[in-house]
Amino acid sequence: MKGRKMGSLFVVLGWALVASFSLQAQQAPSDMIFVNGKIVTVDDSSFNSNLGTIAQAMHVKDGKILHVGTNNQIRPMAGSDTKIVDLKGRTMLPGFILTHEHPWDWSPVSPPIIQKVLTDDIVVTRALTGSPDENLKAFPGVLSEAVSKAKPGQWIYIVFTLGRNYEYSLGGNGGYGRNGLDPAVFNVLDGERITTEQLDAAAPNNFVLLRDVFVSTVMNQKAIDAGIEAFPDPCTNSLVPNPNNETECANSPARMPMRWMAEDVMLKDHYSQLVEIQRLGLEWWAGYGMTAYASNAYSPSNLKVYKDLDGRGQMPIRNMWTWNWHPEMFKDPFLLTSVATRTGEGSDYLWYGGATIAVGRGCTQAKPLASSKLVQNSAMQVEQRISSCAYAPGSVPARLLYDYVQAGGRFVNLHTIGDGDIDNIMNVIVRASKDAGMTDEEIRAKRHGFDHTTMWPRPDQIPMMKQYNFLASGDGYEVVQASPAVFDIFGERVAGWIVPKRRLVEGGIYNTIEVDRALPTTDLSIFSGGISPIITRKSWDGKVYASGQRVDRETALKIASTWGAYYVLRENELGSLEPGKWADFMVLDRDYLTIPEDDIANIRVLMTMVGGKVVHLVPSMAREIGLQSAGAMVQLGPAAQW
Question: Are 316 and 286 in contact (CB under 8 A)?
Answer without folding.
Answer: yes
